[in-house]
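Tutorial, part two.
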Amino acid sequence: MGKKVLFVEDDMLLGSLITRGLEEAGMEVLFNNSLINLRPNVISFQPDLILLDLEVGCQNNREAIPWLKAEFSTVKVFIATSHTEGEEVSACLAAGADYYIKKPYQIQEILALIQRWIPDANAETQPAHYTLGNYLLNIETHALVFRPEQKATQLKPKEFQLLYLLLEHKNQVVNKNTILQRVWKGDSADDSLNNCISALRKALSQDEQVKIENLKGVGYLLRI
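Running the prediction step on this input gives:
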């Protein structure tokens, strides 16, 4: 039987995308766009994980964490938030959250974290990092580490999502429209895309074997 995830997110588009990705990975998902009936839903659904948006509407949901962990101590609670300031993150962890996730995020990041925190009995553990030549990409911290010097570059959210997408299809061309849909949710963002490409090329410049190539009018290719 697949893992069970109770997912609370008021962004319906993000909610539907993540729900679909979790279900395609074999998980059972109960998706809510509010905290209404949270306690009875936890009791009836008996999730392995609660993925909780920190802010649903105008409400900060940090106060829900202590009673969730007190009443359902075996259930993992992940907080998703765009507020990554030290005080907010520390407050969530102090309240009992098991982990916090920086928004925006991609389904691959969620799946890797679920596998790490709630592993299958007979499954291989999802790696915490991926290798790109002489670099390591940490999928949890979004750090890109140049191994010979142990020098780390902290990627911004869009930079990480873009590099992760290109890495998924390494040595293959990724269509520009696919990139805009996956990373920018379909918005017109040519300038932002160009800035991310420039930043990633700079971050990867110490290994000549790792290159991001631009096929004009088509898309981008991560060559390793």
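The chain has two domains: 4-117, 129-223. In part three we will examine how such features are distributed along the chain.
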